[in-house]
Write a structure and sequence with these properties.
The structure holds 3 protein chains of 3 kinds.
Chain A (H helix, E strand, L loop, with lengths): L1 H32 L7 H19 L2 H25 L4 H24 L22 H4 L5 H9 L4 H19 L1 H11 L1 H6 L4 H27 L11 H11 L4 H21 L3 E2 L3 E2 L2 H16 L21
Antiparallel strand pairs in A: 1-2
Chain B lengths: L5 H26 L4 H14 L3 H24 L7 H19 L5 H30 L3 H20 L25 H7 L12 H18 L1 H11 L1 H6 L4 H28 L10 H11 L4 H24 L6 H16 L5 H10 L1
Helix pairs in contact in B: 1-2, 1-14, 2-3, 2-13, 3-8, 3-11, 3-12, 3-13, 4-5, 4-6, 4-11, 4-12, 5-6, 5-11, 8-9, 8-13, 9-11, 12-13, 12-14, 13-14
Chain C lengths: L4 E10 L2 E11 L4 E5 L6 H8 L7 E6 L2 E3 L4 H6 L2 E4 L11 H6 L8 H19 L14 H14 L4 E5 L7 H16 L3 E6 L2 H7 L2 E6 L2 E7 L5 H9 L17 E11 L5 E11 L3 E5 L6 H8 L7 E6 L2 E3 L7 H6 L2 E4 L3 H5 L6 H4 L18 H14 L16 H14 L4 E5 L7 H16 L3 E5 L3 H7 L2 E6 L2 E7 L5 H8 L9
The chains are: A mainly alpha, B mainly alpha, C alpha/beta.
């Protein structure tokens, strides 16, 4: 029974750690399926984490924080679009620039506004998203096996976690069941087909990068106003890149990407649990190795030693009309 | 496609992009209620005027020359190596392993070249895998080098918290390397020659970096290998037609790129710090991207751009002392904006300027 | 009868180049109208103006009698103009149905329009004989079928005018005949068709009217029934075609290159070369004729070492090249083989390089870069100057970036580089593509000279006239095979045409 509870707790932590990965990976997926490389996930995540914590702290409302975070990330998405779509700049350079600008600007503004060395003040209960208790979780928690699963694992998360889980089917539906999705996938494969069909490549891609910003914004708000209680410098800590890895690992498809995010989240959760634990035969748990596993498996996948990653065909190439 | 005269392309466009980056940074400074003019004055004084400031500026410049060259050599083959950070980190490991193992046995004259070779070798090896994967397995080098940065960081946390950790210390760093492994400081050399010199971290790695620039220039523009590399970077089909072995070139270019990034550790570890601490690379590898872009991947341009960034870093550190609300993260902002304007938006002004020049 | 399309005074400039100069074009409804001209005559630009890719600088367009402005392809589609591009605008990972729907989905949800599109697709398939499986992945379909999908796409969007840009370049002869039948069917249903091509036989075979373009101008309109191929050819080039140039008499030497049973597959496993055997002798020109895309490019790539040998063998001198012991382009050069590639922008030159750097492309380990360990800029310049003087490359500036030369001068620089290497074997692909008339004569003369010096020359060209003017023997390729080899003296266009279409019969030599 104790083991069972431990497993539930581990899975619960997995879900909490996966949520920002899922949102960012879905953001990357939308952008890249439209043909625009998104190295800037990390920067958008960091900037929106700061924006939401700052606004939540100043206004006392996590919801206003969330909205600001979304606004900031969408603006960065639009900036990426301005560089890569309008001016056909190098998509990777633009992403790197956004990451570095975000890591500088968040601290500069943080110090200017709060004078706490780049952090925001610690947010009180009402200034952040609290756990949402799903109906009947109290009553059902007594039911053996399913009760704890429902009460501990499924219920009791913050709003952004549920948004992340909701985002996956929504994006799947959008990609494969709507006209917008069909066009989005087409513009990442063969933009000329979209152009000759009389649909604007530019506007489609802009919508994709801005939509990616929206999802990153929710992820950022989650980091600083739901998972954490305030912003600390560099709090995105590479999560944007892990999400990028998960997106590649899941082959740019929503459901496999979700599974990759859960796997990477699980690795992070286990590393946290194993910190300082002696394992039989191995000795001290190799926490650092577990933490870099997402990167290692992604490299191995990219090398094509197992499975095959097939990116969208037009990924990374700006669209220029043929003469 | 509009083409500009050479002076506009090499002079005016970078200047415009740079001004725009500083303008936006100035607006941010103004927005947080400080005086941008005062800020830039402080930065310039901090970088060049105050006693010892030039030494610090050139010390940072040394790092940026190495990482900027690293990005440039790979870029000549159209490879985007954003793994300079990890390669420099591994370079540090190479240098420090050599020193820790041999600093009680070998004299400086043998140990230092060996440690430099160790830095270059480890940096090269860390770039070899992404390079090989790109050449022979078609894995996107940008993604693999990013992943390798994180893998390097993770590895270093375990090494510096474990086998390499200084005995009896809780902070993640190695013991100090012996004097045989330390590159002389410029101020020591100056004093030995009878000059008065302020103590700064500037050391012999700086002339070494300038030599590396010369070496890269010769390699790219005067050797047959460099010719082949440039042909490959401009047009892969033409390179194949010319009998240039594309895959082997890619691997070798990445090896050289990684070795140059690894040499950044020579300045930090053999030159300035004399030990390896966690995160000693401090983002210099990423700054190399900005340096390479600003310097148009040409050694002369890289020296100028590295000097600019050296000044921004040193001047930026000075901001901490003069302003309550501006910290050295301002430097990151400026750096990011420079990458944005002179990299991603590099061509924004070209059509406009082309028209203006034709009219005028 | 109101014309389907009337374009008047269309002018379009790109910088200093006038691509279309006051061009007029009138298309009758329900007719097949050919627009013919050499590469660069302005056909594609004109069609791009009609399809809304470019706005014209001057001129008017009427569609079915109504004056219109076409600012985008969306406008063109709305006016009932459809286009089948030379490179298909198809998403390879989508099904046929998804491709047909794209841009005409019928609402924000795919489900809404899916059924309607499927029915429409099936109706169009039946009415016009455009058989295709709606649920097949486009990437899995043969090229001819993909083209059908393109036609269906245009019709689905209500096209009453259909533009086809060089539609047969990628088709087999059977597929071409199939396409022509489809076009005739469409025309009889009232669809007006604009067929853009540089192939005379297609114009004669399928069109009702033909318009000829040359150098950005419209030079003639004819009823196909009352014109002839040679009249059109004369109009295209602006002078009588010199089918009269005769190759210099060859004194055939020893075998220089011997290929035996070479079979080669591309990355998708499609057979591009099938049991190709040929022998090339010193002092002769062997012309390789065929519709483009029948294995000629692959033949050049395999012979020059760009693509590795798979099956069969190749012998040059004492060197026997097989898949287990391949030779790359560098070794081929050492064996005395030089190669003027088909695509000079893509392969033959590094466009951002200075002319003097391109003058040693492939030979950068040779004397052109100087003797020392490092490249000598002075040696580069003097080497390049010598090439430029010998081949009259203009402007004779070794420091000029190669992109700054005209097509003809770029080609002359490449020829100079390859010929100056004093090769024993020279492979030449499309030597005069996009090259002006004056330069053509010059290039042909150089090839003759080289032949006289005993070099073995393999000439690949889609221009039959060029093949006839230079070759001692003519090999004809079709679907990756050599259908036959004929002596120039025994060959006529009819025989070669039959071989090109894959009708094998009495082949000689």
């Amino acid at each position: 029974m104790e083991d069972f509870i431990a497993i539930i707790r581990l899975l619960d932590a997995t879900l909490r750690l996966s949520a920002p990965l899922i949102l960012c990976a879905m953001a990357g997926l939308i952008s890249e399926r439209a043909g625009v490389i998104d190295i800037g996930l990390e920067g958008k995540l960091l900037a929106s984490a700061f924006a939401s914590a700052a606004v939540a702290s100043l206004t006392g409302s996590p919801w206003l924080g969330l909205l600001t975070a979304i606004g900031v990330a969408m603006a960065l998405g639009a900036l990426h679009g301005f560089a890569c779509i309008t001016h056909r700049g190098e998509q990777i350079i633009s992403g790197v620039a956004i990451n570095i600008v975000a890591s500088g600007l968040t601290v500069v503004l943080g110090i200017a506004i709060f004078a706490e060395g780049g952090q925001t003040p610690i947010l009180g209960r009402t200034e952040r998203f609290g756990p949402v208790d799903l109906p009947l979780s109290e009553t059902l928690s007594e039911v053996p096996v399913l009760g704890p699963i429902y009460a501990e694992l499924i219920s009791g998360h913050t709003v952004p976690v549920y948004l992340a889980l909701l985002a996956v089917p929504l994006i799947w539906w959008m990609l494969y069941r709507t006209t917008f999705g069909l066009r989005l996938r087409a513009v990442g494969e063969m933009p000329a087909a979209i152009d000759s069909a009389g649909v604007s490549v530019t506007w489609l891609r802009y919508r994709a990068v801005i939509l990616a910003g929206l999802l990153c914004g929710i992820a950022g708000a989650y980091l600083s106003t739901a998972h954490g209680a305030g912003f600390v410098r560099e709090m995105s800590a590479g999560k944007g890149f892990i999400a990028l890895a998960a997106m590649i690992f899941g082959n740019w498809r929503p459901v496999p990407v979700l599974l990759a995010c859960l796997l990477f989240g699980f690795l992070e959760a286990s590393a946290a649990r194993l910190q300082g634990v002696d394992l039989p035969l191995i000795g001290p748990a190799p926490v650092e190795i577990i933490l870099v596993l997402p990167y290692v498996v992604t490299v191995i996948l990219l090398a094509g030693f197992f499975g095959k990653s097939i990116p969208p065909k037009a990924l990374g190439t700006p669209y220029v009309k043929e003469r | 496609m509009t083409t500009l005269p050479r002076w506009a392309d090499l002079g005016l466009i970078p200047l415009l992009n740079l001004s725009l980056a500083f303008l936006v940074s100035g607006l941010v400074v103004a927005a947080i209620g400080e005086d941008p003019i005062k800020a830039i004055t402080v930065m310039i004084q901090g970088a060049f005027v105050y006693d010892g400031s030039l030494g610090y500026t050139l010390y940072y410049t040394t790092n940026f020359i190495f990482t900027g060259l690293a990005v440039s050599v790979a870029y000549k083959a159209m490879l985007f190596n954003i793994g300079g950070e990890g390669q420099a980190y591994l370079g540090g490991l190479g240098a420090v392993i050599v020193c820790l193992a041999l600093d009680s046995i070998l004299p400086a004259i043998l140990l230092i070249p060996l440690a430099i070779a160790g830095a270059a070798l480890f940096g090269a090896l860390w770039a070899l895998i992404p390079g090989w994967l790109q050449a022979y397995r078609g894995s996107h080098i940008v993604i693999t080098t990013i992943m390798f940065n994180f893998i390097a960081a993770g590895m270093m946390v375990s090494l510096l918290g474990g086998p390499l950790q200084r005995v009896g210390q809780s902070s993640p760093q190695t013991r100090n390397i012996g004097e045989a492994g330390q590159l002389p400081f410029i101020h020591d050399i100056g004093r030995a020659m009878g000059f008065e010199a302020t103590t700064t971290p500037l050391n012999l790695a700086f002339p070494l970096a300038l030599l590396a620039c010369l070496g890269v220039w010769v390699l790219i523009w005067r050797t047959r290998w460099g010719y082949a590399l440039r042909a490959l970077g401009h047009s892969q089909p033409a390179a194949v037609y010319a009998g240039i072995p594309a895959q082997r070139m890619i691997v070798v270019a990445m090896l050289i790129s990684g070795a140059l990034a690894g040499c950044m550790a020579v300045n930090e570890i053999l030159g300035a710090q004399h030990k390896m601490v966690l995160n000693f690379t401090a983002g210099y590898g990423f700054t190399g991207i900005a340096v390479a872009l600003m310097g148009r991947t040409h050694p002369v341009g890289i020296i100028l751009a590295a000097l600019l960034f050296g000044a921004i870093y040193q001047g930026g550190a000075e901001l901490n002392f003069e302003f309550r609300t501006i910290t050295r993260e301002m430097v990151l902002l400026i750096q990011g904006l420079i990458i944005l304007f002179s990299g991603a938006l590099a061509l924004m002004f070209v059509p406009w300027l082309g028209r203006a020049l034709r009219r005028g | 009868m109101t014309p389907a399309i009337r374009m008047q005074g269309i002018t379009k400039r790109f910088g200093a180049v006038i691509a279309n100069d006051a061009v007029d074009l009138t298309v009758k409804p329900g007719s097949i109208h050919g627009v013919i001209g050499e590469n660069g005559a302005g056909k594609s630009t004109l069609m791009s103006v009609l399809y809304g890719f470019y706005g014209a600088d001057a001129g008017t367009i009427e569609v079915e009698g109504e004056a219109v402005t076409i600012a985008s392809s969306a406008d063109a589609i709305a006016l009932g103009i459809g286009m089948v591009h030379q490179h298909f605008m198809l998403v390879q990972t989508f099904t046929v149905l998804e491709n047909v729907m794209l841009g005409a989905e019928g609402g924000p949800m795919l489900a809404q329009g899916m059924e309607e599109n499927r029915q429409e697709l099936e109706r169009l398939s039946q009415n016009y004989g455009l058989t295709v499986d709606p649920d097949a992945l486009v990437g899995d379909l043969p090229v001819g079928v993909q083209q059908r999908v393109e036609i269906i796409k245009a019709l689905r969007r209500g096209a009453r005018v259909l533009i086809l840009d060089e539609p047969t370049g990628v088709l087999t002869p059977e597929e071409t005949e199939g396409l022509f039948q489809i076009l005739r069917g469409l025309a009889s249903e009232g669809v007006s068709i604009l067929l853009i091509t540089h192939k005379l036989n297609e114009i004669m075979a399928v069109t009702d009217q033909v318009s000829v373009m040359r150098g950005g101008k419209m030079v003639a309109h004819r009823e196909t029934a009352v014109t002839s191929g040679s009249e059109l050819a004369a109009l295209m080039v602006g002078r009588e075609v010199s089918l009269t140039r005769e190759p210099a008499v060859a004194s055939q030497g020893a075998p220089a290159l011997d290929a035996k049973d070479m079979t080669w597959r591309d990355n998708n496993g499609v057979v591009r070369l099938q049991d190709v055997s040929l022998t090339l002798y010193g002092g002769e020109v062997l012309g390789v004729a065929g519709v483009s895309g029948n294995g000629q490019s692959e033949l050049l790539n395999v012979l020059s070492g760009i693509e590795p040998m798979q099956e069969g063998e190749l012998t040059i001198g004492n060197r026997r090249i097989v898949s287990a012991d391949p030779a790359g382009p560098a070794e081929m050069r050492k064996l005395g083989l030089a190669h003027v590639p088909e695509d000079r922008h893509h392969r033959g030159l590094v466009l951002p390089f200075e002319a003097r750097e391109n003058a040693v492309l492939g030979y950068h380990h040779g004397p052109g870069t100087g003797e020392g360990r490092l490249i000598s800029p002075a040696a580069l310049t003097s080497h390049c100057t010598r090439l430029m003087n010998g081949f009259d490359v203009r402007p004779p500036d070794p420091m000029l970036r190669s992109a700054g030369f005209s097509g003809g001068n770029q080609q002359k620089l490449i020829l100079a580089r390859e010929i100056e290497a004093a090769p024993k074997i020279l492979l030449i692909g499309q030597p005069t593509r996009g090259v002006d008339i004056g330069a053509i004569e010059f290039i042909n003369d150089r090839i003759e000279e080289l032949k006289a010096q005993g070099c073995a020359i393999l000439l690949v060209s889609v221009e039959l006239e060029e093949i006839f003017a230079l070759s001692d023997r003519i090999a004809v390729m079709n679907e990756g095979r050599i259908e036959g080899v004929v002596r120039r003296t025994e060959a006529d266009t009819a025989t070669i045409g039959r071989l090109m279409a894959g009708v094998t019969g009495e082949s000689a030599a």
